[in-house]
Amino acid sequence: MAGSVNKVILIGNLGRDPEVRTFQNGGKVCNLRIATSETWKDRNTGERRERTEWHSVAIFSEPLARVAEQYLRKGSKVYIEGQLETRKWQDQSGNDRYSTEVVLRPYRSELTMLDGRDGGQGGGSGGGYGGGGYGDDDRFGGGSSGSSSGGGQPPAAHNLDEDEIPF
């Protein structure tokens, strides 16, 4: 095969309200924690089992970040398309750490609200393919490189009790 694909599609619920940070250059990033769950019936006991996976999402597309900030809340159901990126950062002790997250850039990304704007059922689209070309876009706090050199910001602390799912 002559190429490769880095695409992530998730449908899940927000574990907390979106967290928006503004960079010194005026760009924004919106961070989400999305829970996806799978259920199955245990063959031995017949009991229904469930496993929840938590995903870190960073939105660097300004139009999509605006939609997330304005309309999404803890428990909101969303559809997202992005790509996996791993970044390197240093903790307070100077140790190198790595974080892998789903990233939505101004290109090849989509965010759709599945609850609608009023929290009811229905389709409200949050936009997608936020414009821009296929090159690096440093206006939003970094290029599209999968990892950055040390000194970056650590990911926000995730104080979620995984037994307490918000939906």
From TrEMBL:
Gene Ontology BP, a term: DNA repair
Show where the record puts the motif Important for interaction with partner proteins.
Answer: 162-167
Alphabetized InterPro entries for the sequence: NA-bd_OB-fold (IPR012340), Primosome_PriB/ssb (IPR000424), ssDNA-bd (IPR011344)
Organism expressing this protein natively = Pukyongiella litopenaei
Annotated NCBIfam families: ssb
This entry's Gene Ontology molecular function terms read: single-stranded DNA binding
Q: What does this protein do?
A: Plays an important role in DNA replication, recombination and repair. Binds to ssDNA and to an array of partner proteins to recruit them to their sites of action during DNA metabolism.
Q: Per the record, a Pfam family?
A: SSB
What name does this protein carry?
Answer: Single-stranded DNA-binding protein
Keywords of the record, alphabetical order, are: DNA damage, DNA recombination, DNA repair, DNA replication, DNA-binding
Give positions of region: Disordered. Answer: 113-167
The entry's cellular-component GO terms read: nucleoid
> Gly residues bias located where?
119-134, 141-153
